Each structure stands twice: as C-alpha cells, then as structure tokens.
Prior knowledge:
The structure holds two protein chains of two kinds.
Chain A: E1 20-24, H1 25-35, E2 40-43, H2 50-58, H3 60-66, E3 69-72, H4 76-82, H5 85-88, E4 93-99, H6 101-116, E5 122-128, H7 142-148, E6 151-153, H8 159-176, E7 180-185, H9 186-189, E8 192-196, H10 207-212, H11 226-248, E9 253-255, E10 262-267, H12 271-280, E11 293-297, E12 299-301, H13 305-312, E13 317-321, H14 328-339, E14 345-347, H15 360-374, H16 381-384, H17 396-401, H18 416-429, E15 434-436, E16 454-455, E17 478-482, H19 483-500, E18 506-511, H20 539-545, E19 550-554, H21 560-572, E20 579-584, H22 588-604, E21 609-616, E22 636-639, E23 650-653, H23 662-669, E24 676-683, H24 687-708, E25 713-714
Parallel strand pairs in A: 2-3, 2-4, 4-5, 5-7, 6-7, 10-11, 10-13, 13-14, 15-16, 15-17, 17-18, 18-20, 19-20
Antiparallel strand pairs in A: 1-8, 6-12, 9-11, 21-24, 22-23
Helix pairs in contact in A: 1-2, 1-8, 4-6, 8-11, 12-15, 18-21, 18-23
Chain B: E1 21-28, H1 33-46, E2 49-55, E3 65-74, E4 93-96, H2 99-107, E5 117-121, H3 128-131, H4 141-151, E6 154-158, H5 160-166, H6 171-182, H7 189-199, H8 203-222, E7 241-242, H9 245-259, H10 263-279, H11 282-298, H12 306-319, H13 324-331, H14 334-344, E8 350-358, H15 362-367, H16 371-378, H17 381-391, E9 395-398, H18 402-413, H19 422-444, H20 446-454, H21 463-477, H22 480-483, H23 489-500, H24 507-517
Parallel strand pairs in B: 1-4, 4-5, 5-6
Antiparallel strand pairs in B: 1-3, 2-3, 8-9
Amino acid sequence: MAERSFAKEVEKLRLGAGEEFAGEGILAITKALLQCGVGYVGGYQGAPISHLMDVLADAQDILGELGVHFEASASEATATAMLAASVHYPIRGAATFKSTVGTNVASDALANLASGGVTGGALIIVGEDYGEGSSIMQERSHAFAMKSQVWLLDPRPNLPSIVKAVEDGFELSEASNTPVMLQVRIRCCHVHGHFIAKDNKRPPMSVADALAAPRRDTGRIVLPPASFLHEKEKVAKRWPAAVDFIKSRKINEIFGSDHGSVGIVMQGGMYNSVVRALQRLALADTYGDTDVSLYVLNAVYPLVDDEFLAFCEGKQAVLVVEEGQPNYIEQAFAAMLHKAGRGTKLVGKEHLPMAGEYTGQVMLDGIGSFLRANAPHLLPGEVRAPNKLGEGVDTADLINVVPGRPPGFCVGCPERPIFAATKLVEQELGKHHIASDIGCHLFSIMPPFELGATTMGYGLGPASASAFNSPEAKRRSISFVGDGGFWHNGLTSSIGNAVFNKNDGVIVIVDNFYSAATGGQDILSSRASNRTKSTKHPITEAVKGMGVKWLRHIDRTYDVGKMQATLREALTTEEKGPKVIVASSECMLNRQRREKPLVDKAIKGGERVVKPKFGVDEDVCTGDHACMRLSGCPSLSVKSLDDPLRDDPVASIDQNCVGCGNCGEVADAAVLCPSFYRADVVHNPSRWDRFLESGRRAAIGLLQRRRESRRLMFADA
Amino acid sequence: MLDQASPLRPKAGASDDERVIKLAVLAVGGQGGGVLADWITDVAERNGYIAQSTSVAGVAQRTGATIYYIEMARDTGRLPVFALSPSQGDVDILIAAELMEAGRAIIRGFVTPERTTLIASSHRIAAVSEKIEPGDGRASSEKVHATAEAAAKRFIAFDMEKIAAENGTMISASLLGALAGSDTLPFTRESYEQAVSAGGRGVKASLAAFGAAYDRARGIAAAGDKAAPKPAAESKAVPKVSGPETLLKGWQELAVRVAALPEPVRDMAGRGLRKVVDFQDIAYGGEYLDRLDKAVALDDADHRYALSTAAAKHLANAMCYDDMIRVADLKTRSSRDRRVRKEVGVKDNTVLQVTEYFHPRIEEFCGTLPVGLGSYIENRPNLAAFLDRRINRGRHIRTDSFSGFAMLWFIAGLRRWRRRLLRHKVEVEHLERWYELALAHARENYALGQEILNCRRLIKGYSDTHARAQSKFDRVLSALPMLEGREDAADWIRRLREAALKDEKGDMLDGALKTVATLD
C-alpha cells in the first residue's frame, strides 16, 4: 500500500477530448501516456517519480479497460529491459524511474535497447533528482543520452508542454527507431496546473496480440556483426531522422524578438526560471513576452545545428543556460559556431556557476551579468546602476541560532530501535566499520545515532563492506541493507556475494514490509495482500536459499535488548561466513495509515481496544536527555518546567506518540532512568476490566490516603 | 493589501491586475503543508486567479525542513509564466509553520522589509541537535522574533499549533486562518472557508481552528503586529499546604525562618524548602535552612544575595537526590495518578493501565540498604557481582495493579529510615565537600563561590548517566587549583561548566580543561 492514494485523482484519467484536466504533473504525464495509446508501462519508484508509479498502480482498472499492461518492475534495469517489447513490435511502451541513480542501474539494458533500436515508440520518463530536496549524488542524465545515443527531451515545466513532450517523444522514437528519454525535474513532477485533455486511445497492437504472432529479426539483436552495423545506423540513419523530426515539428521553440543583438539558449526545463529573471530585470511581462531572443531546447539531445546557427544569425552574444556539469550543450554549440566560422560570442558558465542548482537568485545574477556585459542598452537605468538598497537585516547571528533540520526517522519508526541497539553494542564492544545503504535506514548517519561510513548504492550496503574481510581482523564489519534494496539488487550483489566470498561480516537486513523510503510501495516480502501482485515471500527464505548458515530473525525490532544481544552474538560468534540478521517490524507510517481508521472505527463501534502511549514523569526526569541521544523520535522532545529550581528542560512526549515502545525499551536496555511509563488506555472496557479496575483503585486509594494523610501535602505537588 | 515594492518595475504594460503574487510555506515535514498549499491554490482559483503550487515530496517530508511554493495571478485568459521555487528577495507572503523555519526563511533571503508579510507560528519543534545536549540546547526564540520584526514588512506571530490542537485539528487550518486574517491576499474570508469545506475531511474542526486564527491575526494586526507577551509566571514561593496539625506547626516554624531571610533569597528558599520537606520531612527542612544560613552569613545586599540564592537553589537539588525511594514515592502519589490521566486523556468510559520501566542495579540496591550492610556488599566485588546478576535486569511494573503498586508503595515507605541508608551517607558527604568548598572560595572570591555552587547543575541522571555527570562535576572542579588566585577564575569555571553541558562524554570539557592548563 503506497503512502499516498491517488484513487480519487485517477478518475481524471478518464477525461475525454476538450475537457480540462487540473492536477499534478505526474498525473498529467500518465494521462498523456493513455492519450498516446501506450501498450505497456513499467518502472521503479523513487522520488520524484514515485507518485507516477503510485498513480499507475491506482489506475490499474483504467489501464485494464484500455488493454494496457502495467508492471511494478523489480528495478530500473528490469523496467528498461521491458522496453524490449517495442524492439520487434509496433507497440508503444514507457518506463519510468528516478535519475541518475535509476539510469545507472538501467544503463546495461539501455545500451542494448539503444543499439538494436526500436520499432514501437519507447519512452523512458526520468525524474531528474537534482538540486534542493534531492537525496542523491548530483549528476546529469544527459551523459547517458549521449553515450547510448538515445534522444533526450527536457520540456518547459508546465502541464501542456510536458503532455506534448510525451506525444512528441513517442513519435520521435518511432521516426528515428530510437528510445527517447523524457526528463522531468523534481518540482515539475509535483507542479499543479491545467491542460486540455484528449480521448484515451487503445493500443493498436496489445502485448497479447504480439504474443499471438511472435516476430524476430536478427538484425536488431546485439551480436556481431549486427552490433557494428547498429553503431553506423545510429549516425547514418537514426540521428538524421531525429534531427529532421525535431526541426520539422518545431520541438524547440523560439520566443521574444528575432532581431536583438543578444540571445539566450536554454534547456526547456530552465525556461520558467529564465523568464522569471527577465521579469525581475524588467525585460519580460507576466506571460513571458520579452524583447530578448530566447531559444528553448525542449530537445536537448540531439542538438540541431542549422536551427542554432540560424538563431545566432546577427547576434553578437548568446548565453547558454545549462544546469549542472559538464557543460555538454555549451561545448557542442561552441564547436558549431567555430566550425561554421561565425563571430557570435558564446558564453555560459562564465556568467552562471559550473555546478549547482540554478535558483532564482543564481539566474538573476547570471543573466543580469550577461546583459550588463553584452547588451547594457536593454537594461533599465535602475538595473544598470541600482540605487543602493537597504542592506537588509543582518542574518549572521541568526545562522548560529537556527538549527539544521535534516529528515529523520518518523514517530514510532521500527528502525530507530535497531540503531539504538547498534549504538549500545558499540558502547560495549567499541566502534565498528559500518556500511550503510539507500533507504530510510540511512538516517542512521544523522544525529543522534551517527552510525555508518559509506553508502554506495541501492542494495549495495553489504557489498560495500566486502573488502573488509580479513583473517587477521579483530573486528567484523557491520553492514545494513533495507528490504527494498534487498529485493532490488541486494540478494545477489550483497548476500550472494558475501556467501560466495566467505565474508565474515555482519549483515543487518532492515525489513519494514515495504519499499518505505520511496513511499511505501509493496515488494516481494510485503505482508499485505495485494490484488495484482504476489507478496508474502519471506526474506529469511531467500537468504537461506542463497546459502547463509548463520541467520537470526527478529520479528519485533522494538525489543532493543534482544536486538542488542543478537548483534553482540553476531559480532562475537566463532562461526565463519556472513552473519545475517533480519530485523522485521512494519513501517509505522504505513501501519498507522492502515490501522488508525480501523481502530477509530472499532472504538466507535463499541469494541474493546487498547491504545498505548508513552509518557515521562517530569519530576523523576532529571533533564540529562540521555534518552534522546538514543532516540531522536519527533514525539520525544524537551520542555521547560515552570520551576526556578530546575535549570535544564526535561523530556516530554507529545500527543503524536504511537506507543511503539522504543522509549521504555531503550531506558531499560541502556539502564537510563525510571521516568518513562507506558499508559494503555482500554476503550470500551469489558465488565471484567471494570470490576478489576474498581477493586484495584479502591485498594490503591486506601494506601495512598493512608500515606498522604500523614505527611504534608503541597497544593500542586 | 500587497504593495508593489519590488525594487524593479514590472515591464511596461503589466498592470497591477497582471502582477504575480508569490507565497512560500516553510514547514517541518509531517505538518500537513501539502494540505495548506492545496487550500491556498483552491482559494485563488475560486477567486478567478490562476495558481500554481509546487513542492518537493519524498524523503524531505520525514520531519525535515521543507518548502511549498505557490504563485498566482489574476486570470486574464493568458497563461502566466510561473517560477517553480521561491527566489531571494522575491516573496510576498511567507508562512512559517514553526518559529525556527521563520528564521530559516529569513536566512535564506525570502523575507524582505519592502514587501514580505511573514506569518509564523511561534511554537517550537525542537530539532534533534537541540534535544541531545545534556544541558539546554534549544535555540533562542527571542533572537528569531527580534530579527523577524526587522526583516519583514509585517510580522504576524502567535501559537497556531496551540489553536489547532485546541480545536482538534492540524496546524494547516490555523495557518490558513492567519493568512486570511492578515488580509494580504485579495480574497474574502468566505472563499477560504469554502476551500476548507470542499476538502471534505474534519471540516468542522478545521473551520473552528481557521476562525480562531483568523480573529487572532486580525487582532494582532490591529495591535501593531506584536506577539503577545508571555504572562508572568505565578509565584509559587508560598505554597498552600495541608496535613496533620503537628507537621503544619513544624512547617510554620520553617516558614517563619524563610520570611526572615533577606528578600532576594526568599523566593528560592521557599521553593527549596518545600522541595526538601516533600522529599524527606520537617527536620530535613531545618537542615536545609541551617546550611543556607551559612551562605547568607557570608552574603550582603551589594551582591543582591546572589550567592545565597544560588545556594538555596542547588542545596535543595543536592539534598533531593534521586534514589529508589524518591522514585517510588513520586510514582505512587495520587497527584501523579491524576497527572497521567490528564496527560493521556483518560475519560470516564475508559480504563487506564500504567507500566513503569525500571532497571535496578546492585548500586541502587546497596544504596537502599543500611550503611553497614550496603558497604559490606560493595566492598566485596565477587559478592556484589553475584547479587548484581540477580538484580540487574529490566523490570516492567504495572502500577495500576495492586501488587505492583504495593511494592513501590513499600519502597517509598523506606523514607522514614532514609537517613540510615548508604546512599544518604554518600550523598551527604558529597554535598558537604562541595558546599564547604564553595563557601571557602566565596570568602576570597565571591563570584567563584557562586560558580562552584552552580556546578551542582551538572549532577543529574541515573546509573551510568549519573556516574558520567559526577565525573564531569569532578573534572570541572579539578581546575580550581590551576585557577588559584586568578581574577577570572569564576568566569573560567562558568565556561567549563557550560562546555560540560554541551556533549555526552565531556569532550568539549576536556578541550576547555586543556586550555585552562595552558593559562599563565
């Protein structure tokens, strides 16, 4: 069950010709796929494309009605390999994933697909996770397009443009027998906007039709000698076909005046930021009308030589706005101008930073700097020589005040106790080399845990500890991998590898029943029933099947003591070979989403329900915060007491507590303090509950009154 | 209403009608910022505006800082070009769903005095870095308030989280109310309420929180955009007290002694007295005041009796050490029962079960034995280890059950013999050493004496944490010989103490001690 349900929104996918669609970017892309008569769709979740997968999953009824096959692929490689269905058959297919991490994984399949080429349109929609909010290394998908020679579209970030790019992408792919990548940036995926819909189309040939009449053509298979011919075909046939298509269909757009002395070339995705900078320089209006010539590359690869040269005609200087590095586009344009013997000055990274996101301020500074240097006459006086504005407030002091707020484990997260136990084991046995992996569990590298030295890729945690395997070693390495990473790649690359190479390290598989970090999608080991997917395949069975001999399964991670003891045993046992601990408890975010409505309903319906919550006795708490150094739970925080005798704030648990038990277990395992208590509220108690309670309260009240009548009682003590 | 205070004019021809309004929401993941963004977009569209909202969903939502961004312009039939993220110096309205996020917005340049209306909830959600300090690691809210007043064109701040909680809903509702009440957008109150109603879930609670925040924002706007001052804490120095006649008489005698103390000391001494009497008995209160008198004797009005006030505070804390008896006593009181029921929200038709988490060790066990027996065991490591194996484990005790409660009640009853127990002996010796040390120094160097008293703040926690605290306390005071005769000795002790409160192990303290060692 995914974190967010699109069950209501997917009804918008049924809109017909002429109706107005209003909604998020990803939903618009899905609608565009259906309007294009796509035959099959697959992909792998991951921000910013997770919701696209969730939309597709929630839209399975609509997809089914249209005869569209949907696949939640095991990995990005799987998704891309699936596009093989478009090699011999005229079926349109689409795959989607996060880039560049997903593209890295997919690149084997991508290269093979690109070599043989396609008959049906093959579209790869990549969510470019670059800039603020990104969780991955900052690289460009552009390089993949260049090396495999697949075409890359980067449409202007508004709904009509991205919908059109999907349509163009399929046609471009078919016209040039080449897969096409469509890049949408992180905010574009979540942008709310409008476009006019068209009717959905049934695929002219479905995958069922293809299976009924199989085809093959050895010329499309990547084997010598065909593979040598493919390379030639790419440059002799497919490239020119793509350039012709882009030019004749005017995929790239020109805005503004066509006679100015300066121009700006940009990736389509940068258009809105460029216009915003021009608006702020008083050179463009609200709608983007401007006197500066703009050449917008909705197709960033391949580039169209004569279109660019024509744009440069009569211009003294042209600025290339290309986010990220290396500056492939700028280099290509510079070479074109040079070879054509043109005198137009081409600039880019002189005015704009080589690396980093092109934020509003960066764009304003860069374009301002370019225009001041090359066309100062365009700029109004106050821009050329601005009156000195107020310095603004001094924020230097504030920077030292405002704390950083990186993402962390949610309230009640079952992974928190795993890392609390790890920290406690390290207090006993000393520091260990810890290899981390991609997933929520990577938050362990942040305070308060500060565990983990590297992260090398999805499912590669244990693989990245594989060098730390020495007969002379006195200490074992510890590595983590999540259930998502385990099924994505970890089973073979990490577990199989450790078994085969007789790795002596400790591997912890963090199993929270979902691919939680990407939004809680189901995976093979999910324990939920899924209408369209096969779940409930235990990780332990898979690990055993790989040949692991030392295997422990902890089915309640909140048992910090047991977690600690198991880790200790794994680190100290005489047994050779990988020591694998599968630590399982359901993702609390998903669990609450699933259970809360049921619990509320049960309480309303008069059923006996026990709801736990933790609390802190503020007079017992001494305010040393040791508990928080082993937790970081958002629900466990500090509060000041209205008592001048106390200097430091005490621990306090807020209303969001879900009663996971971590506080009590940690206080117990780490021998912290007796201030925690668990309060179980029994809703709709049974007669027995009530009988027991009244008896107990009477007896307890007796003892309390006896003592309290013999001592001084202070008003609010 | 919005002004056009952008430093640069819009392009000629762009009338006020075509202006783009830019609104950013800075929130902590999980606060429901997405709902707020959807509402605002809906309100704009209901009022004939074209609106675009963007966000970065995903990992950032998980309690990390996150931004939602909305642009809107009157619908003139043409599609405006909207940006997808806020720019420095180019935001009209900034909503911060938590106070430090307002600070972050200012740092990031999203708040400018010429144009930005800053609407911030003044409540705090402590970041992990603020919570894990052994001392008080919380950021200064005053600093953010002060800077915000200067940085924003208008600053509207009040506790919107509280308003939401009081109405049983999420902060998004009260943030929307504050936005509507600020009158910065050209939309009517009704259109906001329609958007909330159209959401469909928890409408009643949301509208109630919306309305309360709306009124509050308007009130504040009229009162000159100032946050309401905190009401002064009521003095509890002279508590109401009840009990048997004889005890009340004893208490009155002690109260008379407090009343005779110099005025500046009285409040703290009254609180301290109450704490120690509550901890042990009337006689213990007398001991407390006897000790306090020694500090008062050294003190004078020129110093505003600062030494005595510090003594009143820290003596009380030192005398009320955290032993098993105290914990059991606090956990078995009827007032505690009432507090838990209130905090958890137990209603008449529900039953409460309470589980306590204890983990006693041999040290706590011995501390609760008579001095002779306790020391006997402690001096025999093998015996202590043997017993520890039987004692040292987590015990979950149900204090709603009679047997669990009775056990704690019995332990609490050991109070009357406390003076004869090992822990008391250890604590008293430690206290006397520290107190004498402080007073001895105070005679030569008043401020130094005071700082030594303040070092008592370092001692807290249970078991290992307590041992670590004790070690920090000793390490700080170990600098005294090195500071002998220095005029800035008090300042150094203060710095060492503050360093000790910064991290768990005392690494900062060790660094600071090294610095002290190099002083000439």
